[in-house]
Amino acid sequence: MGKVEDPEITQFLAAWLEVRQLIQAANFNHFHQAGLSATQFMVLNLLPEKGDGIAIGELARRMNLKPATVVKTVDSLEERGMLARKKSDGDRRLVLVQITDEGQRLQNSARGQFRRYISDIFSRIPGQDRRQLIKGLESLVQAAKREETRTDGAITHDERGAAPAKRSSRQSLSR
How many domains are there within the chain? Predict the structure, then answer.
């Protein structure tokens, strides 16, 4: 495969960032109404509905945040009854975070609102364009997975050779 021309990359990134901002605004709206921060929202969305839960270190890795930031977020969500900590059955030293029924209710409500929002947008796009969009996004996911496999999941470096720095939750939101 040849290298993609820079104008295509520029056009893609501009469209991607605009879509990302629109989706984040719509998705976060319900959580802000409930008094949750964007970081709290992300934690709730990363927790599985069922199962043992996720370790704080894994949450931090998935969110590209420092564990200390995630601990503060987990503390605040636990105080509000949205999640609970539980010792792992397999390794008693490991503490897992699980979503509670209250957190699940909020998450389900927000997902329903978000799905309706996306459905309204999709209904305004002609059928053939929707199918092409889906196919293109699926191709993007596959290419990203191949790249992740090729780099063995290692952190990639920018053109200057610098690895991306960990961000606090406030820095992540400003991007």
Answer: 1
Assess if residue 174 is contained within a domain: no
> What is the C-alpha separation between 40 and 76, in angstroms, rounded?
8
Tokens of 89: 């059955």
| DSSP state, residue 84 | E
Q: Beta-carbon neighbour count of residue 163 at 10 Å?
A: 10
pTM greater than the 0.85 cutoff:
no
Contacts of 97 (CB under 8 A, 6+ apart): 43, 47, 53, 54, 55, 56, 59, 74, 83, 84, 85, 86
Dist. CA 152–CA 117, nearest whole Å: 36
Secondary structure element (H or E) that encloses residue 29, with its range: helix 6-33
Contact 175, 64 (CB under 8 A): no
Q: What is the pLDDT of residue 129?
A: 96
DSSP conformation letters of 111-147? HHHHHHHHHHHHHTS-HHHHHHHHHHHHHHHHHHHHH
> What is the residue range of 36's domain?
16-125
Is 156 among the domain residues?
Answer: no
86-141 pLDDT per residue, tens: 988 888 888 899 999 999 998 888 778 888 888 999 999 999 999 999 999 999 99
